[in-house]
Design a protein that fits this description.
alpha/beta; 213 residues; 4 strands; 12% strand; four-stranded parallel sheet; 12 helices
Length: 213
Amino acid sequence: ESVFAADLSDVVADRGPMEYRDAETFFRKTYPTQGLLRLLSSVLSRLAASGKGEAVIQIQTPFGGGKTHSLVALYHLLKHGQSVKHLEAVTAALKEAGTSEIPGARVLTFVGTAADPVKGKTPWGELAEQLGRYDLLKEQDQRRRAPGKDLLHKILADQPTLILMDEIAEYCVKARDFRDQVVAFFQELTEAVKVLDRCSLVVTLPSSVPYGE
């Protein structure tokens, strides 16, 4: 039970239980439910530009419903896919997606519980830094102002990209001084992602409202 709760920020930082941070161990211990296979195959199809797969996917379940587990699965699939292609969950996802190869793609992450809204970067600043394009959004990040979809399109358009964002509701509570800008940013981000053929955004939200509406 002590290792039941997955944490995407720990996986990205290569810390925590081996069951989550090691791709092969993770997929060996992950049962490929139909819901998980649909999610993995949808993202694979989108990143491969095969004409299938949703651009924006919102995973909404109660606490403990497997939201972060799904994001970790996507993270390992795209970051370490070649080393786990032989495992059941991965081969089943590839088959459902109608492809034999895992597309090469950048993987960007933002975890609201790990982010510091006072001294840390905003969600848009963090994504820009991971892309190596922070200079383009530096002013918007420091002023806590959403950048607009044209700028987002500019930094995302050149390569296939998977964006994984977790615990956004909690981040909005912590970032109350510029919460409206965070909401505006998500509107802009979804609009930018939808027009890019090989870009996928997966975001988790709790179906309950522990932080208020």
